Amino acid sequence: MIKFTHKEQQILKQIITARRDIRGNRFNKKEILNELLNSTNNAPSVGFSQPWEFVVIKDNDKRNEVYKEFEKQNKKAKKIFDSREMYKSLKLEGIKESYLNIAVLYKKPKSDILGQTVQKKMGEYSVVCAIQNLWLSARSYNIGVGWVSILRPKKIKKILQIPKEYKLIGYLCIGYVDTFLDTPELETLGWEKKKSVEEVVRWV
Amino acid sequence: MIKFTHKEQQILKQIITARRDIRGNRFNKKEILNELLNSTNNAPSVGFSQPWEFVVIKDNDKRNEVYKEFEKQNKKAKKIFDSREMYKSLKLEGIKESYLNIAVLYKKPKSDILGQTVQKKMGEYSVVCAIQNLWLSARSYNIGVGWVSILRPKKIKKILQIPKEYKLIGYLCIGYVDTFLDTPELETLGWEKKKSVEEVVRWV
A31 falls in which pLDDT band (50, 70, 90)? Predict the structure, then answer.
């Protein structure tokens, strides 16, 4: 059994703290990947079901289609945030500039899963844990990841011809970057305030 | 900007690989916590909304009530897995033995959230990322975390008197442990096979 040291705890802390949500204008083009996918495959999963699948997208035509869907949905979002002028100037995806895109899928189970008999969402949550593993691993390799959520999952599934037993959980843009910001961009810009631990913890 | 080294990448990899879902029989009693909660607070969140809240439960009466709910739901689960004799012998929670329990909540937003205008689940997924940060940080401190999912969220909310604008995402049992298994227990027992990366990745 591995026992981690104070120094190793500090390294994980640094990686967690230094992770950023990366937008397109900071992507370069280079290769990686196997280590990152390995780290997803060691994520926790309900009943050891490992219900994740990854579609790695290099094809430019597909990416252009995904980008068009983003533009369409972001046009609607701009209206929603009409009263906050800043929204229009935010870069919210890196679909075309990144080295590659990954669609992260949840494969719906065909039979009962241990631990998922009451809370049906547990399978999806396992997939999210896998994404977070990938995100931290990427950061440790100094590689940027951006999660693009202004997309209709059904439309993305159609573009990628994904069968209906899958659910799209996340759409990621991945690649080497010029820089990682010291502070989340939305914090610096004052879009939202950083919460303190005290604000989000209660004792019973 | 921090650039991580090969050695640091290997440490994160070790932490991710050595993380285990911990059941009650391996919990001791000791203290930690602030570092773990700090790591959750540095998780990614849609539109920097940080929609997570944590209820830390030490009270034994509350825990007993949660345990009763587990027993009730697991009785039903045992019937579902009637054909797999092994299920009955599995230890699936550490509610009473662990040092403390944490209910992890999603606070539903009162107004529109950047990035959540199309995919309403993004807020919940941010909370799951926070749980995975906590889980890895705990492992780096050689502290065990078990996610108990055989519970009805509504019942847990009632026991803990959680207002209705919150959704229960995860129920965690946390504490020092005697050992971390080298391999996930459900893999060793043959409940599910470990998937290879090749099985879960496709290229487009």
Answer: low
The verdict on residue B194 lying in a domain is no
Q: How many domains does chain B have?
A: 1
Beta carbons within 10 angstroms of residue A198's beta carbon: 9
Contact criterion met (CB below 8 Å) for B39 and B137: yes
Whether residue B143 is contained in a domain is answered as yes
Which residues numbered 7-36 in A keep a CB inside 8 Å of some CB on B?
Answer: 8-9, 11-19, 21, 34-35
Type of residue numbered A152: R
Domain extent, residue A107, equals 21-192
* DSSP classification of residue A5: -
Collapsed DSSP state (helix, strand, coil) of residue B53: strand
Asked, for residue A150, whether it belongs to a domain, the answer is yes
Which segments of B96-196 does DSSP mark as H helices, in order? Answer: 122-140, 153-159, 185-188
Among A54, A147, A179, the residue with its CB nearest the CB of B44 is A147
Nearest to B55 among A1, A140, A204 (CB): A204
**Ramachandran area for residue B194 (φ above 0: left; ψ -120 to 50: alpha; else beta):** beta
> Shortest CB distance from A186 goes to which of B43, B48, B139?
B48
- Is A201 close to B56, i.e. CB distance below 8 A? yes
CATH number at residue B38: 3.40.109.10
- Residue A114 is assigned to a structural domain of this protein: yes
Q: Is the dihedral of CA B155, B156, B160, B161 positive or negative?
A: negative
Tens-place pLDDT, residues B152-195: 999 999 999 999 999 999 999 998 888 888 889 999 999 999 99
3-class state of residue B23 by DSSP: coil
Distance of CA B21 to the CA centre of its chain: 8
| Residue A143 near residue B3, CB atoms below 8 Å | no
**Contact status, residue B34 vs residue B102, Cβ threshold 8 Å:** no
